[in-house]
Task: inverse folding
């Protein structure tokens, strides 16, 4: 993918996040909570997997 398109997509995503947080703060907070919960669940699963390998 050309570098210009990558930069445009990146800055467009950043602009969308700022817009979303400014005009829908409740929705943005819920989205970040869901992302955080998903990351915690992934790392918990990974930890459980490693624990089961050791026992």
Result:
């Amino acid at each position: 993918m050309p570098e210009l398109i990558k930069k445009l997509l990146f800055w467009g995503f950043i602009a969308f996040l700022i817009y979303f947080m400014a005009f829908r703060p409740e929705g943005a907070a819920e989205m970040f909570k869901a992302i955080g919960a998903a990351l915690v669940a992934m790392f918990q699963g990974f930890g459980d997997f490693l624990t089961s390998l050791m026992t």
Remarks:
- The chain has a mean pLDDT of 93.
- The two ends are 45 Å apart (CA to CA).
- The helical segments are 3-23, 25-54.
- Residues 25-54 form the longest helix (30 residues).
